Inverse folding.
């Protein structure tokens, strides 16, 4: 069961509702980064208190934030078509990366932290050198905004992308060649056309890909064989406007006890988070955040889950494995 | 993982085929060494600095030994490099007699120090150091053991660092001088890839010796085993200088490059503590009578052998197949003589340094993009196919077929899946290890921005 540990305050000026986009837990699990306008709030996950506010050089809102694997920097994707890299602890803003011609939507580092991948409304994916801020490669293989990209934390040789054109593609992150397209006609050509993909996320061993589409269905794809191995859906069919967040959860257990099975969490537009056992597809928990607004982002680290609603309510949960 | 999704015929090549990259730098590279995971390439330079490149960006991630007044650094060309097994430490030997051990994690420990960090340890000899190898990688207490061959010394030197950080020196010999005739100077020392505490040395008069150092060697010698060395094998396969010794990763094959213009390939048989060598092949350039600059085996059992020929007219690398001893490939593309080389098995690349320019040339596999991956219902064909419509081609698919497909999909939904366990070996059979990640030097990129 997920239990609420704290609800960090997202400050905003009185009378306005903040528009939030992402809440990401740092690689060591101690902090959570939440972009707010052109700032990034660094919040302690232990007690929810605000640790630091980073001012970025962006001129419009930030739509995604990503921690570098060493936990030193955050990269920010902004609507001003640029990507920023900010050193959290010492040096402040390091780079602003220009090259995209439309708002940047999603970011991901490789496992060594020396490459940054960004995807944009301009339908391309760009690869940047983190140290000197130069553009290394542009991958153009989608025909609609690329809303989500992901690289496995352990094996950065592949990159997955999901786009509003309904395609999930897997690329070789070094050459930029497309290796596989995970779609089959039956599935993505529904009656009313293509179902846009809203989020992709690799499993820990990079062999499976968790995919959420805007019809609210979450699927686990086998990347090698290219077929769906789990379909997780809630009872009502939805036509989502927002991605609503999803992630794998790998609950931490006693080293002596057998490892717990991974879970999948997914949010909906009415402030609820659903949690499934990925093996049995059993719905384990239907968690109500208490806010009837769309969940905009879910990010998990070990047993910790951060949930952010569109109107800026952040909640941190902890998974405790109780007797079923 | 990317290799699993690529064309198996393009990926499962036994050796690199074409020049894929050239690393140019104002510092002239004299020797190269790939990190154990293949993600970094270290270059020793004629100016004394050691540059570590990230292979994916082709740019330096660390430049070691360039800071002013931050501990000792090489003032003469770097002679050889060796990575520790975990990829965290790098060993460099210079013609100035310095042997330096660099801890690549140092940037994370003192942020802000930037490039002015000195080496973790240094040993100054009174003569150039030919080469060195790791006998025992750094333990958690920071202790390690290194064997080095130094100019005009009759035995290799064993350097061991204890947990307090003091480096002890002892000669690597086991009463050789008493029993044998003069073996000349030790020119080469390499660690055995499987028996990790075994060091193989080659001398200027063609002698080759296998020493076991460390704890197992001392078992017979009783208490106080520290620094004990036992001789496992000694022979004289050639009468001239042994310039290089390469051992295949499986530890069953050895190549000796000697100045009599030939490379001898020998099989190593290991029975308890007895080592025997038997000659398998001898590689020579019979027409030009070339010497060889460097030699290296391919992965696993060493099915291939690559060597760089000496001489201003030779600009290629020669690659032999070791079972039959025939030349299978000449790696072209460089326009100068090639010196030091290294083979990365995980990345399937060979790097070699150019003698004149000091550039680093890298041969690899050029995997062609698979266009059919962009559209799963398209098929790549070698040549045009005469299209003939099948009788049932546009029939509405039978319900039985559809049912089978849905059944198959439903079955897949019930199969257990493993999201966590990773493969132990990659498609080429190399062990998958999470290599050490060199911390990024953010201070340097701030300095550049100012």
């Amino acid at each position: 069961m997920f239990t609420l540990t704290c609800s960090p305050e997202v400050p905003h000026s009185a009378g306005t509702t903040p528009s939030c986009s992402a809440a990401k837990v740092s690689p060591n699990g101690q902090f959570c980064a939440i972009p707010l306008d052109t700032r990034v709030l660094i919040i302690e996950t232990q007690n929810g208190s605000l640790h630091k506010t980073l001012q970025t050089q962006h001129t419009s809102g930030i739509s995604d934030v990503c921690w570098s694997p060493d936990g030193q920097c955050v990269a920010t994707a902004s609507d001003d078509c640029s990507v920023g890299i900010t050193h959290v602890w010492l040096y402040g803003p390091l780079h602003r990366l220009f090259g995209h011609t439309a708002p940047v939507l999603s970011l991901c580092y490789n496992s060594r932290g020396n490459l940054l991948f960004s995807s944009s409304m301009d339908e391309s994916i760009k690869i940047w050198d983190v140290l000197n801020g130069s553009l290394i490669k542009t991958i153009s293989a989608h025909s609609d905004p690329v809303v989500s990209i992901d690289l496995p934390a352990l094996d950065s040789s592949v990159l997955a992308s999901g786009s509003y054109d309904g395609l999930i593609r897997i690329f070789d992150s070094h050459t930029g060649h497309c290796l596989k397209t995970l779609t089959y006609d039956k599935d993505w050509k529904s009656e009313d056309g293509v179902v846009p993909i809203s989020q992709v996320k690799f499993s820990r061993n990079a062999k499976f890909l968790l995919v959420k589409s805007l019809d609210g269905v979450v699927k686990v794809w086998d990347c090698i064989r290219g077929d769906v191995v789990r379909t997780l859906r809630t009872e009502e069919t939805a036509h989502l406007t927002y991605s609503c967040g999803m992630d794998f959860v790998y609950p931490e257990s006693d080293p002596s006890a057998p490892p717990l099975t991974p879970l999948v969490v997914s949010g909906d537009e009415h402030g609820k988070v659903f949690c499934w056992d990925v093996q049995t597809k059993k719905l384990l928990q239907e968690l109500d955040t208490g806010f009837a607004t769309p969940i905009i982002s879910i990010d998990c680290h070990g047993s910790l889950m951060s949930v952010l609603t569109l109107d800026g309510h952040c909640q941190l949960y902890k998974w405790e494995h109780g007797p079923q | 993982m990317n290799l699993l999704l690529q064309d198996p015929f393009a990926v499962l090549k036994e050796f690199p085929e074409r020049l894929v990259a050239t690393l140019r730098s104002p510092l002239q590279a004299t020797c190269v060494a790939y990190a154990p995971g293949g993600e970094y390439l270290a270059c020793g330079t004629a100016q004394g600095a050691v540059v570590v490149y990230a292979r994916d960006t082709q740019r330096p991630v660390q430049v070691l030994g360039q800071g002013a007044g931050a501990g000792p650094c090489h003032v003469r060309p770097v002679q050889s490099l060796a990575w520790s097994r975990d990829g965290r430490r790098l060993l460099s030997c210079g013609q100035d007699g310095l042997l330096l051990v660099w801890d690549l994690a140092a940037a994370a420990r003192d942020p802000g120090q930037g490039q002015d960090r000195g080496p973790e340890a240094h040993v100054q000899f009174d003569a150039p150091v030919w080469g060195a190898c790791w006998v025992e990688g750094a333990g958690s207490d920071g202790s390690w053991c290194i064997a080095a061959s130094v100019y005009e010394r009759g035995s290799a030197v064993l350097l061991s660092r204890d947990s307090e950080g003091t480096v002890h020196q002892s000669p690597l010999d086991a009463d050789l001088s008493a029993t044998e005739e003069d073996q000349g100077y030790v020119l080469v020392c390499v660690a055995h890839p499987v028996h990790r505490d075994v060091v193989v040395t080659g001398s200027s008069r063609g002698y080759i010796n296998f020493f076991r150092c460390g704890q197992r060697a001392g078992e017979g010698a009783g208490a106080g085993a520290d620094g004990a060395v036992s001789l496992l094998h000694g022979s004289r396969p050639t009468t001239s200088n042994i310039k290089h010794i390469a051992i295949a990763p499986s530890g069953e094959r050895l190549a000796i490059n000697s100045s009599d213009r030939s490379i001898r390939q020998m099989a190593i048989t290991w029975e308890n503590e007895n080592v025997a060598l038997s000659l398998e092949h001898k590689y020579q350039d019979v027409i030009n009578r070339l010497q060889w600059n460097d030699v290296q085996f391919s992965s696993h059992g060493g099915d291939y052998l690559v060597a760089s020929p000496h001489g201003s007219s030779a600009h290629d690398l020669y690659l032999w197949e070791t079972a039959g001893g025939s030349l299978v490939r000449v790696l072209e593309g460089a326009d100068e003589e090639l010196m030091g080389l290294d083979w990365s098995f995980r990345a399937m690349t060979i790097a070699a340094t150019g003698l004149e320019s000091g550039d680093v040339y890298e041969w690899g596999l050029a995997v062609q993009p698979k266009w059919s991956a962009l559209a799963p219902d398209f098929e790549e064909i070698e040549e045009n196919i005469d299209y003939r419509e099948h009788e049932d081609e546009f029939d509405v698919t039978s319900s039985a077929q559809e049912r089978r497909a849905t059944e198959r999909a439903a079955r897949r939904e019930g199969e257990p899946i493993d999201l966590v366990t990773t493969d132990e070996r990659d498609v080429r059979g190399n062990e998958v290890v999470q290599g050490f990640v060199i911390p990024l030097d953010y201070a340097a990129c701030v300095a550049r921005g100012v």
Q: What stands out?
A: The two ends of chain A are 9 Å apart (CA to CA).
